[in-house]
Amino acid sequence: MKLATGRVVEGKVVVDGPPFEEGTVVTVLSREGEETFELTPEQEAELLLSIAEADRGDTVSDAEVLRGLPRRRD
Predict the structure, then answer these.
(1) Could you give phi then psi for residue 9, rounded to 5 degrees?
(2) Residue 57 within any structural domain of the chain
(3) pLDDT tens digits, one per residue of 49-67
(4) How do beta strands 6-9 and 12-15 pair?
(5) Other beta carbons within 10 Å of 59
């Protein structure tokens, strides 16, 4: 999984940093104005812990995440 930021230029998302490979499927999450959110002290502590883990490189691969998701049975 890769996280990137960018801006919309002439109707297209231009990513900061190295480009994604051609054909990469992406999800775009956009801020709406000056939107904010509030966390409880417990949620903030959990978020800061998660950020510190990511900064250390203590992450899970996308394949591992997908393996942990329940399978849909049609």
Answers:
(1) -130, 120
(2) yes
(3) 998 998 898 888 888 888 8
(4) antiparallel
(5) 13
Domain region containing 54 = 37-69
- Exposure string of 4-22, with b = 16+ CB inside 10 Å and e = fewer, is eeeeeeeeeeeeeeeeeee
Number of domains in the chain: 1
- Predicted structure pTM score: 0.43
Decide if 26 is inside a domain.
no
**5 in a domain, yes or no?**
no
For 6-68, where are the alpha helices, taking DSSP H only? 41-56, 62-68
Q: What is the pLDDT of residue 1?
A: 66
DSSP letter, residue 17: S
The residue behind tokens 């812990």 is: 49
Query: For residue 47, is it within any domain?
Result: yes
